């Protein structure tokens, strides 16, 4: 099993004490892994006990947790013309079980990063293979609508083996969540978008629309 996510952001407290958490681990499923694994983690003892795992989607390689602690989102990092997907789950703190709500196409292959706004209304995905960023409105139950925006990067850079085309590899909100930053390995740029949470299409280019870095930095 290849572990691709092991982050403090993916802990949810399940006891009254601050030292006991649920730990979520995303994996690649092409060599027998089941998907997302849930463990009970004791921070004081440094021990982890398996609780459950999903068996409902391919390559849930990156995860994020909604601020309500009830919904978890994963990319499904798959290549091909049909593009990847993003999955929405509910989490039961009593049983430690994840339940799949739905999946939505990201519009680009190889999605590798997913973020959610603090108010749990919008999910944003970075498509590494597709070189694009997709935006999803979140329903009240935590499920996802089809993407409302798909923003395609263009260009290349010095290393023709790795930078032959855009490769968006992250999507990070500013502290106030009024901007979104999407680094692109393929173009040596960090794209900058204004983010209007009250709009049906919340992303628009900022001024300036990107920051360019020297190749190799």
Short description:
It is built from no helices and 18 strands. It is an all-beta fold and 217 residues long. It has one domain: YVTN repeat-like/Quinoprotein amine dehydrogenase (Methylamine Dehydrogenase, Chain H), CATH 2.130.10.
Taken as a percent bin, the fraction of beta residues is: over 45%
String of helices and strands:
EEEEEEEEEEEEEEEEEE
Distance linking N and C termini: 32 Å
How many extended strands? Answer: 18
Question: How many helices does DSSP assign?
Answer: 0
CATH homologous superfamily annotation: YVTN repeat-like/Quinoprotein amine dehydrogenase
With strands numbered from the N-terminus, the spatial order across the biggest sheet is 2-3-5-6
Structural write-up:
With 217 residues, the chain is an all-beta fold. The chain has one domain: Methylamine Dehydrogenase, Chain H (7 Propeller), CATH 2.130.10. Helix content is 0%, strand content 46%. The chain has no helices and 18 strands. A 4-stranded antiparallel sheet has the order 2-3-5-6, with no helix packed on it. The protein is globular. GO terms for molecular function: 6-phosphogluconolactonase activity.
